[in-house]
Design goal:
heterodimer, A: 135 residues, mainly alpha, globular, B: 197 residues, 9 helices, 74% helix, elongated
Chain lengths: 135, 197
Amino acid sequence: MTFSFALDYFICVFICCNAVLQLAAHRADLSMLKIIRNTKLTYLISTGLIFFSAYLFFTTDNRIINDFEGGLDANQQAVIFFLSALCSFFVTGLVASAFNSSKHKQSTQNLGGLASYRNYRLIDSLNKKWMHLRE
Amino acid sequence: MDAFKRIDNQIFEILYSLTGQYSSLDALFKALASDYFVPVGIGITLFFLWFCSPSITNRISSQKIVLASILHMALSSFFVLVINQFVFVDRPFVNYEISPLFYPPTDSSFPSNPAAGIFSIVIQFTKTKSAKLMTLVVILFLAMAICRICVGVHYPSDILGGCSLAIICTPIIAFMARNTEPVQNLFLKRLRIYNLA
């Protein structure tokens, strides 16, 4: 595995996961994870980003290489994919928190789990957990 | 057995003959057969399934499908690893003395590890209510399976062997899923505390 190859893979998966997360946020109506409100525009941009990331990955270098010649083996791919997906969740959540700063509902109803992102922003959720830990 | 081998070779020759005609088609075959395109496609589909359900009941069942898919894929790959300790089949490009479009893998051709892993996920996706997602994973699997034959790294029988192995693992996964239901519920409950499930 070379560092640049792993980094390229991480970046492309990160772009893909952000796009997929936007699609999922619209499908599940997780308002506080949405960056763009318009559903059709989100579908268009997200689909475009998924194909763009694949294009970016395969056209910037030779990706058809064995894992002992600089490619990634299955375990490395799995770990990088997981980290990338996790990062994309937090980055999407934080960006969406900034975009929805004026829109978030002051609801007392805490649905818990992912459904809480219908009313609460990720930043509020993290803040609440932090305060809870400090008590 | 000879007849089966003959048919296997004939299908391989037909599919391999599709390559080398158009450079853009070859590039498409290489991308679809690569270790990155379809696995990432399947990965983001699982990622989507984790988040996409609007109701809590559907979400829990979707997330259990994601967990079962990962476990099923891991078990199938483990069985491929075990089988490869006893069985070694040369790759088509070795037998035919051709230069493959792909890098030359050094492990056994039979059973196909990517086919076993991805078909495991296809099997688990049959539990989803979304026909669109099911169609997407089936298309990704077929694209990867056909392209790996086209680029000269697998025989059709390797793909069938991988699929059979995934099918054999299905009752084991079903048994494990049934018996680890409390553990799965606890795991998802913990993740829900951090608003991750």
